[in-house]
Amino acid sequence: MIECGVRISEVCEIRDEDIMNNQIIIRKSKNNKDRAVAVSPILKKEIIKYQRIKKRKYGLLEGNPFIVSNLGKKLNEKSIWQIIQEIKKQIDIRDCVRFSGHTLRHTYTSMQLRNGLDIYTLSLNMGHSSIKMTQRYVQTLNSEDFIEKSIKTSALMNLR
User: Fold this and answer.
1) What is the mean pLDDT of the chain?
2) N or C: which end of the chain has fewer CB within 10 A?
3) Is residue 147 part of a domain?
4) pTM for the full model?
């Protein structure tokens, strides 16, 4: 979720055939539109490992769900929420700190911008209907997050 910025509801609906070499197709997301999210080389490596384990343990599954429970059944939103809460306990995050699927989505957004992704592409990745929605996610960024990037892209520094 933190690597692709997908919603919990979208994770539940990913099927094996939605996983491609360098992208995952997210079908009928919140705006009832399909979109693609990028698969980085490190995520691809983890997907391949997971697929091998899943195939060895469960074989072919009805409906081809990508993410499954330890019983080989498609996970639902409540199950993923419970997994996230268990992770929160294991990494010892204080109770007063919000840690949720949506927190991971916000973190993805901030990290993508800090790493140089433009807001238009980010908006498409997140499945937002407009850039204005994406801008709401990034209101918490401070000047240090964009000053260094602004210097790197300076018009005077990059004259040709």
Assistant:
1) 86
2) C
3) yes
4) 0.78
